[in-house]
Amino acid sequence: FKKLEDFDFNGKRVLVRADLNVPVADGKVTDNTRIVRLGPTMSHIIEHGGTPVLLSHFGRPKGQVNAEFSLEFIVDAVKSAFGQPVEFVKTDWTNVDAAKAQLEAGAKGTIYIMENTRFHPGEEANDAELAARMASLGNIYLNDAFSAAHRAHASTEALARQLPSGAGRAMEMEMSALEAGLGKPKKPVIALVGGAKVSTKLDLLENLIHKVEALVIGGGMANTFLHSQGIDVGKSLCEKDLAETARRIYDKAADANCAIILPIDGVVAWHFEANAPNRTYGVEAMDQTGMMLDVGDHSIERIKGAIDEAKTLIWNGPLGAFELDPFGKGTIEVAKYAAKRTLDGKLTSVAGGGDTVAALAKAKVVNDFTYVSTAGGAFLEWMEGKPLPGVQAIKS
Ligand code: 3PG
């Protein structure tokens, strides 16, 4: 795809697909990472005489104008992130004449933020007419929202086909980091996959066993695998109906020379709450009345040993109930270890997914990994090996 350097922005209005779908509490942005990462694209456009016009969805207003989902609240956060004047552009996306007039009357150096693209049903329908109205607002289209690239929507897909288009800097960085993670990685590669349920990660596991040399399975989903190996996991979270599927993945991995690493011990508690009394058991001798909420110390050591063997690590999903102290210990220790190997120049580490980023933040290592993606669903689909419509559209 084309990059910033491939365009002449002078005197042009540049439609930038951003992902301003940021976490909010009491009307305030609680994590501005997605905004901050737009910085290099914003400054490049402005320094080269162009005017950025940001397009984004926010939440899921289901194709209707709904004040609760207006993007107007984000103006202050964008202003303070970039120190540039920022103007909000209201529209219901049915008629964009007034929006166009506002943009045409605009001052140089101002960043414009358009109203939520999902206020019109054409957005999620990837409607070409809506995309044409969007296209009429600018001269160039850049997608800088990897985290929304798994959606084939008007502002991520159809619009890219109606204007000269390319990738913003954040998208470019994301793609090259992901390429280093799974595209053309330094081998051996180890993948860490955790989270509650196998059912949400089946495609991902099926893809990974053909791409990586070792696959560590943690979190609730490890219990389903342990159960499929004949281990009684007591009251632990376990999708018993997926035992057969887990067994099949296990066998396929062996055929593909991918070593599956399951917990050998687990921290068991009898209540799912912070600071619940707990004890560590070997998985073969689990207490049947409790539930495993984290990997145990022997498992942590084993995972560290496996990381020592790897040159590349990709990570999605926490290894235990990291949000409840002390059951985040496994995730945090492994995160710190991977961060240290990365800082020592021995490991390329790529992580993504909402919970994963929160867990790495808890371990205070977000900046020590080679790359941490802000994407949730898009990161998962990329790990599943699926083509992302938003990326395909700027490639062709
Ligand atoms: C995200 O937050 O993962 C993206 O903005 C996509 O949001 P969506 O799941 O509502 O499409």
In a nutshell, what does this entry contain?
Helix content is 35%, strand content 17%. The protein has 396 residues and is of the alpha/beta class.
How does this structure look, described?
Helix content is 35%, strand content 17%. The chain contains 15 helices and 17 strands. With 396 residues, it is an alpha/beta fold. The chain has two domains: 4-170, Rossmann fold, CATH 3.40.50; 185-383, Rossmann fold (3-Layer(aba) Sandwich), CATH 3.40.50.1260. It binds 3-phosphoglyceric acid. Residues 19, 21, 60, 147-148, 151, 376-377 line the site of 3-phosphoglyceric acid. Substrate binds at residues 19-21, 34, 57-60, 118, 151. Monomer.
Secondary structure class reads alpha/beta
CATH homologous superfamily annotation of the largest domain: Phosphoglycerate kinase, N-terminal domain
Largest sheet: 6 strands, parallel
Residue share in β-strands:
15-25%
- The helicity comes to 25-40%
